[in-house]
Amino acid sequence: MAGGEDAVRPPARLPALLRRQQLVRLSADGWERALAAPWDDGARACLELWAVRGLPLVVTRQPTALRDALATGLPAPARFRRRRLALAVVPADVVFLDEFPPAEAVTRLLPRAFVAAWRSLVATLAGAGCGARVYGGFGWQALTRLAYVHADSDLDLLLPVSTAAHADEVVQVLAAAAWDGPRLDGELLFPDGAAIAWREWHDYRQGRAAQVLVKRLRGVALENPA
């Protein structure tokens, strides 16, 4: 958050190639500025833990009115009542951009009965040219080793795809998967940063939906993708 000294800082510039669901790591000065805001006790305790451990924030949709700052978020773990905290950070305080963990990294969070099927699904996606990552509760727990996952948690997949045909191939893998574990949710991520829920894409391509909701860094819209 901006402090009094920011009046003499050089103009901030947003990082290149920025997109939703990227992670950002802040500098020590960045955390000091973030903690200078008037947080309540619960939010401050969570953010202090993040600062001490050097844990990331996630890039959220950027409001049109926000200038020279980066909108980020933090879904707090169970110990902080799963609150959603929003932080506008100075881009110069971002040390580097990061990513959610690869799908294989959450294997240890699954009950043993689902491990073999999960590894098979991850390998099949990789064979289709999709290096899936996991965000949401499973992704945050894998990143932080704090308690996020509960009995009703979905497995949220971030699925990079290159074309509409590639998206079709990846979605077919998911739709045909022999999977009895947590519900598979998440988004297809296209090269331009557009993200579409894989289930919505499947319905759209099957003719069961007239449009899909496309999420981008600076907005959302109902569209008819090619």
Describe the 3D structure.
The protein is an alpha+beta fold. The protein folds into two domains: 4-98, no CATH class; 103-223, no CATH class. It has six helices and eleven strands. It has helices at residues 28-35, 41-53, 112-127, 136-144, 164-176, 198-205; strands at 23-26, 57-59, 70-75, 84-89, 94-98, 133-135, 155-160, 184-189, 195-197, 212-216, 219-223. Helix 1 packs antiparallel against helix 2 and helix 5 crosses helix 6 (198-205). The longest helix is centred in the middle third of the chain and has 16 residues, at 112-127. It is globular.
* SS summary, helix count: 6
The span between the termini is 40 Å
Roughly what is the average pLDDT, rounded to an integer?
Answer: 93
Record field, number of beta strands: 11
Given helix and strand content, the structural type is alpha+beta
| Tertiary shape | globular
> Can you summarize the main beta sheet?
5 strands, antiparallel
Helicity level, as a percent range?
25-40%
> For the largest beta sheet, what order do the strands appear in spatially?
4-3-2-1-5
Oligomer: single chain
Order of helices and strands: EHHEEEEHEHEHEEHEE
Q: Quote the beta fraction.
A: 15-25%
| Cα gyration radius (Å) | 19 Å
